[in-house]
Every structure is written in C-alpha cells, then in structure tokens.
Specification:
heterodimer; A: 376 residues; mainly alpha; B: 106 residues; 4 helices; elongated
Chain lengths: 376, 106
C-alpha cells in the first residue's frame, strides 16, 4: 500500500514569521543604545564612593540584549533554511500526489507497474526523509541556543545544604554569606525586605568536573554541582552568572508576628508543584521567625531573620530533595518573587504575564495575579 | 565616608528618561511571543514546533525578563541611593549602590 505524501507547511509563511521574529528585538536594541547613552551621562553628574557600581549597572541588560540579538540571528538562519526545504517539498508534492493517484488506477499486471511502484515508493521515502532531516536540523539549532541552565530547585538546595552528599560546602557557605549580607543591608529600616537571590547561570564549557556514582557533574560558576547532562551551552561570551530574579519577602511590621503562610500562597501552594519549594521556604521562614520571637526574645531582629533564613533554607532543602521533580528555579522565581512592587515592576506588564505563562504554566499566571492583589 | 558630588536634578532627569524607555522590554516580549506563536501554528506536529516553544522561553523570554529586571533595578536602586544620599544617610546609600554591581562569575 502506498500512502499520499504528508501535508507540508508553507515555506513562505514560515519565512515571513521567522522574519518577524528576527525583527522582534529591533526596537529594544535601539532603545538599549539610547538607554546606555543616557546612562553614560551619569559619571558627569553623579559621583559617590560606590558610584562605579551604578555606572556599571546597565552592563548586564545591555549584554543580554546583545546576546539575544545574536541568538535571533542564528534562529532566523535555521528557520530560513527550513523554510527553503519546505518550499522545495511543496513543489515536489503535487507530482507525488498525482503519481499516487496514478498508482491507485493501475493494476499490478500493467506493464512497468513494478518499476513504477518501486520508484514512487523511493521518492515518497526520500520526501519524508528530507522533511525529517530539515525538521531535526532546525530543532537542533534552536535547542542549542539555550542560554540559561535550569537548575532544578532540588539541585540548588542540595548544592546548598548537603555537604553530606558530597556537593559544594563552599557554595553553601558562600550562599549563606550572601543571604546574610543582603539581609543585613536591608535590616536597618522599618520595612524588612529579605532578599534571597536564586541564580540561574549560563555556562560556556560543559565539561564534567566530577563523576559521582556514575553520574557526571559540572561545577557551575557559583559553585554548585549539577548533572552535566542537564547543561547546554552556547559560545557567546564568557560564562557569567545572571541573577534572574529574587524571592522577596516583605513585612511592614518588624516587631509583630508574621503570617505563617502569606495570603497569596494559601490556596496556590499545594496545587502548584513548581512553586512548592518557594512557598514552603516562605512558610518555614515565617514560622521559624515567629518561633524565635517567643523563644529568643533578646535576640536582635537581624539575627532572628538570619537564623530563620538559614533554617528555612535547610528545611526546604530536605523537603524538596525528595519531592520535587522537574520544577526549575526560574519558574519559581517569577511566580514567587514579590516583584510587582519597586524595581521589579517590569514584571507586571505583558512580559510578566508571558513569563508566568511560559515558565510556570497557567498556575503561575494565576499566582501572579494573587501576588498582584497581595501587593496592591 | 569620602565625599560625594551629585547634581540631583540632572541625575533624576537621566533616571526618568531611562525608565521611560524600558517599556521596550514589554513590547519585545510580546513581539517574540506573537511571532513564535505563529511559527508554532505553522509547524504544528513537527519537532521544530516544540523546539520553538522552548526557544521562546529560553533564551528569549528568560533573557528579556532578566535584562528587564536588571535595567529596572539599576534605575530604582540608583534612585533609592540618590534619595538616601540627599537625606544624608551615606553608609546606607553606599550599600545600596554596592547591591547594583553586576554579579559576574570570575
């Protein structure tokens, strides 16, 4: 039996949308040039002992946008190649359809039938193969363009809390140091903002650093060990750490007990495995803080926060190590971070909605709404 | 604490102007989303379609959100530091500035 050749997407349509995709950052690239131009005026009017950090603060967005531009160039080239193949296949298809029609009308006893059938079968096979090869080529290029390493929360937390499991003790110390330092810097105001940065790193060289129990691990720039098989890379720039977002926990009342589970987490927490660890972390943090209010009445609030943070990190680690499979840190970040206020206001726009949709599924979008309600 | 020199109106003017431009991140995110959506619809059932969906998230959307976060933080953090300097709380202002330093791996 000979089947008709598959329907093929129109190459011109794919090409048109690939062109649109390619142009999607044009406005942004131009804007970033304007932005960095204005930002570079700061040294003339703003000089302080630490102002170099301010002057440098646009480097990350500038470089990221530039990298995304390069990524789009590569994606566009792949899609164009794919579109060309689709156009070619669409040219070949009517002839194949006509020949399959003809094959249906023939009888095996007709002269030349066997040769005709063999030839047609070969051409159909080649037609399918050409589509599959082009499709896989395009897929491979697109997959290779990932810039971010998705660290499952379990890996991050394991990396943090478990020297017993042979992963980075230094990373733990460093991480907690960062946490404490950041907590301390924001402790002096009446509004406590405890910021836990969870980082998503980009990796240039994917080389196993250690083999443990038959599994290859690579050390990320911030000292975590993650299974090498999970890493993808792109030779764009030196490896660097990008802080994608943060889990921000705020309380406007430093001296009172905190709600054990934030309002936004009450309903969503259980139903959303992606967010489970973040919610769990928050719950433990608040819970332990409240305990310390009672058990350590003379402890300073800064110390109380630090201890609560450490406690929550470890407890959450223990809980998530066994339970969560798959959720990635970036997913948790956008949904859990109390980002709609302050500097993170960008996330409440279309971009925020998209991030919620892509990264956390519809549940994260729902939760993002709750966060919005919570913070307004 | 060593000395500082700030032209407050000029600094604020720069920060305001920069912030006005940052909605371009939102537009870029929408445009990427729309274009990828069309491409996915066109290539439905093929491997390229699912690769495109991943691509829209990583690197495009995560990158855009990350860049956007940093850019807004740069403006907000600097504005915060400026406020605190103007209020005379220099140690806190310096600490806020240090927080803005890009976290680059060695």
């Amino acid at each position: 039996m000979i089947d008709y050749p598959r329907e093929i997407p129109r190459g011109t349509a794919v090409q048109d949308h690939a062109d649109t995709l390619h142009d999607s950052l044009d406005d942004l690239v131009e804007t970033m040039t304007t932005v960095t131009g204005r930002w570079d005026e700061l040294p003339a009017v703003y000089q302080t002992p630490e102002s170099q950090s301010v002057y440098d603060a646009m480097f990350v967005p500038e470089n990221l946008v530039a990298d995304l531009g390069l990524v789009l160039d590569t994606a566009h080239t792949a899609l164009t190649t794919f579109a060309d193949v689709l156009t070619d296949l669409n040219h070949r298809r009517p002839g194949l359809v006509a020949d399959v029609d003809r094959w249906h009308e023939m009888s095996p006893s007709d002269p030349g039938f066997a040769d005709f059938e063999y030839d047609l079968d070969q051409r159909l096979w080649t037609f399918d193969l050409d589509l599959d090869i082009a499709d896989e080529d395009c897929e491979r290029v697109l997959d290779g363009l990932r810039l971010f390493v998705h660290l499952p929360l379990t890996d991050v937390v394991t990396g943090l809390s478990s020297s017993a499991q042979g992963v980075s003790r230094d990373a733990l110390a460093e991480y907690l140091g960062v946490v404490q330092q950041r907590a301390a810097t924001t402790m002096s105001t009446t509004t406590v903002t405890t910021v836990i940065d969870i980082t998503v790193v980009r990796i240039q060289d994917i080389v196993p650093d250690v083999i443990r129990d038959g599994v290859a691990y690579s050390e990320t720039p911030n000292g975590f060990y993650v299974p090498t098989a999970r890493l993808t890379g792109l030779q764009l720039s030196p490896p660097r750490m990008v802080v994608v977002g943060s889990v921000t926990i705020t309380s406007t009342n430093l001296h009172g007990a905190l709600p054990v589970v934030p309002r936004w987490a009450r309903v969503g927490g259980r139903a959303l495995p992606v967010l489970g660890a973040g919610v769990s972390f928050t719950g433990h943090l608040y819970e332990h803080y409240n305990e310390l209010l009672v058990t350590e009445p003379y402890m300073s609030d800064a110390d109380r926060w630090n201890e609560a943070i450490n406690y929550a990190l470890f407890v959450t680690g223990a809980e998530t190590a066994g339970g969560l499979v798959g959720p990635v840190v970036v997913g948790a970040l956008f949904a859990v971070g109390g980002l709609p206020t302050g500097p993170g206001a960008a996330l409440t726009g279309a971009l925020g909605a998209l991030a919620g949709g892509y990264l956390g599924g519809t549940g994260a979008g729902w939760l993002a709404e709750q966060i919005w309600d919570w913070t307004h | 604490m060593t000395s500082w020199t700030i032209d407050e109106p000029a600094t604020r003017a720069i920060l305001d102007a920069v912030e006005d431009h940052l909605s371009a991140f939102d537009r870029a995110g929408s445009d990427v989303n729309d274009a990828v959506g069309e491409l996915v619809a066109q290539t439905a059932g093929l491997r390229t379609a699912s690769a495109l969906e991943t691509f829209a998230s990583d690197p495009m959307l995560i990158g855009l959100v990350s860049a956007s976060e940093h850019a807004y933080s740069a403006v907000g953090g600097t504005r915060g530091a400026l406020d605190v300097y103007v209020a005379g709380q220099e140690e806190m202002a310096a600490s806020m500035e240090r927080d803005l330093a890009p976290r680059l791996a060695p």
